[in-house]
């Protein structure tokens, strides 16, 4: 009976040790490509949110309004997710790196109706194409599975939105 108790005790200790060592280690592996992806995508997403915020009051097109809302709903949580990764990785988000010029955004702000719609769609398509390039680099060079999954999600979502925006441009 003593052997059984000893064997159970040893097994329990080993199981506890295995559990505790698993809890204490960070199994997430990331590299510089993951950090660069998050640091550059955050300001890129923020600019898309700024562009989406211009839509209310400047368009009468319900499809463009819905698209802007979809962009906001997708990219706001992604910013939070990437900010969390950077914090966990000991890095900070970039504060610049936007690709649309202030002049382009000022021009866009001054427009309404069909002119606004066309310029907004063209600018957002170009903006999304930049995100596709950054996400593609993450897929090719990144190491963190969650960052790579987000990159693939960005590619899937923004390719679909580019298709939708091209359709709207062709109709308009």
TrEMBL record:
Domain DUF305 stretches: 34-169
Annotated signal peptide: 1-21
InterPro entries from the UniProt entry: DUF305_CopM-like, Ferritin-like
Keywords attached to this entry: Signal
Keyword Transmembrane helix (UniProt): no
PANTHER family: SLL0788 PROTEIN (PTHR36933)
Protein name: DUF305 domain-containing protein
Organism: Amycolatopsis acidicola
